[in-house]
Design goal:
By secondary structure, the protein is α+β, with helices and mostly antiparallel strands. The chain is built from 11 helices and 22 strands. Helices cover about 35% and strands about 20% of the residues.
């Protein structure tokens, strides 16, 4: 029997040709390669409408530079240590280990939830930022955070003692440039995805009539002279039913079958991997069963989030957290999903929710929701148009995911990993 022992692992698997004979990388503590590693102000900020930009974990990760403090508070917060261009900001609470190089030159301040690593001649800031996103470094700070009294937090002393790997400056620059070019491509593709989503959102608002109106702003040419749309309550054109209440102690006999829960229903998609199961009696098989073309709608969590069930396998059931909408008149099921998506986040849908912390869309209220109703031919045209746009969004999402996966794999090769050998 053998135990696994970690080796230092100071040579990456993948190396640029000109550095293959350059030897091992150096391993140093963070505090030994910079003049200072400090945290931000501990004083609770008082935000102002304008002033000096202020960064915390939340807006650093989101990229929203919309928090400001007064110059007086800025001077107090930076009286001992002032972050500057070229420094590295690193989150140390919550989503620990997210880093960003300061590329801007304007004055700013940071909260205690961020650490500032001062730039140094001993490392390229962009290289060190990339290394800090590697599995090796992320695993180290995670282990150190678990030793802390507060979960998901790394204290400053532990952070200063984290280990970083440094090749020669020329190799640092090469790695930073390689990953930066990939980041630029990822950013470009992410912008394309955002543009597609924004276009779809705007198009939906034009293809559906606004509340209280009977005609959309944008109409396909062949339907411009076909008259106004109707507005009907959903319950008048569809049967709406909640699924079975989950009770593992009470339901112990019958057919053990998979069912949809709230988490399985995404916008325009149903996730069917690793579905939970529960028992259904013979009398419940049809009552809580799904057919191709049924619309499944979340009752809680994110009420209204919905998708059309495509019937990819039989005998799928649904639990009480889900509404099953089955139309009783000719209606494009996909159109209901698109309409709910178009009004998501607006008072038109959110005013229907009940509950305090967790919002719910009850069956009775959902049935009263007014749905724009056009001819079946126009419904299909709209559904087909927006579905083709969804296909583009899906393809772009997959392209972006593939680039991120490629970057992750490349980083695992470009940075040394800890080897394991039998002892």
């Amino acid at each position: 029997m053998s135990n696994k022992v970690e080796k230092r692992g100071l040579v990456p698997k993948l190396r640029f040709p000109e550095f293959r004979e350059a030897g091992e990388w150096e391993e140093k503590r963070l505090q030994d390669i910079t003049s200072s590693v400090f945290d931000g102000t501990h004083q609770t900020p008082i935000y102002t409408l304008e002033g000096i930009p202020f960064y915390s974990v939340e807006n650093l990760i989101s990229g929203n530079k919309n928090k400001f403090i007064s110059r007086e508070d800025y001077l107090a917060a930076t009286s001992k240590n002032k972050p500057n261009q070229g420094d590295i900001l690193l989150t140390r609470i919550g989503k620990i280990g997210y880093s960003q190089v300061v590329t801007w030159s304007h004055e700013f301040s940071v909260y205690v939830t961020l650490a500032v690593i001062k730039k140094s001649a001993l490392f390229d800031s962009h290289y060190l930022h990339c290394f800090m996103q590697s599995d090796r470094y992320q695993n180290e700070i995670l282990k150190k955070s678990l030793l802390n009294a507060v979960p998901c937090k790394i204290n400053m002393d532990s952070l200063r003692k984290t280990n970083v790997l440094l090749p020669k400056p020329a190799e640092q620059q090469k790695i930073a440039d390689c990953l930066a070019s990939l980041d630029e491509l990822i950013t470009l593709e992410a912008q394309k995805l955002d543009t597609l989503k924004t276009h779809k959102k705007g198009l939906m608002h034009q293809l559906f009539p606004a509340e209280g109106e009977t005609l959309p702003k944008l109409r396909f040419p062949e339907f411009r002279d076909t008259g106004e749309w109707e507005e009907v309550a959903l319950g008048e054109i569809a049967e709406i039913k909640l699924g079975k209440m989950l009770d593992s102690k009470k339901h112990t006999t019958g057919n053990l079958l998979p069912y949809l829960n709230n988490l399985a229903v995404r916008w325009n998609d149903v996730e069917t991997s690793n579905l939970p199961k529960m028992y259904f009696d013979e009398s419940e098989l049809d009552r809580f069963g799904l057919r191709t073309g049924d619309v499944v709608v979340c009752e809680g969590g994110e009420p209204g989030r919905s998708a059309v069930w495509d019937g990819r396998f039989p005998d799928l059931k649904f639990q009480k957290a889900i509404h099953r909408v089955r139309f009783t008149v000719p209606f494009q099921p996909r159109l209901l999903v698109l309409y709910l998506e178009s009004i998501a986040g607006t008072p038109r849908l959110e005013n229907l929710f009940t509950g305090g912390g967790i919002k719910h869309l009850t069956q009775e209220v959902f049935a009263r929701l007014k749905i724009p109703f056009a001819s079946h031919a126009e419904q299909k045209k709209i559904a087909d148009c927006l579905t083709s746009l969804d296909d583009l969004i899906t393809a772009q999402t997959q392209k972006l995911a593939a680039l991120k996966t490629h970057k992750k794999g490349l980083m695992q090769q470009l940075f040394p990993v800890l080897d394991e050998v039998a002892a």
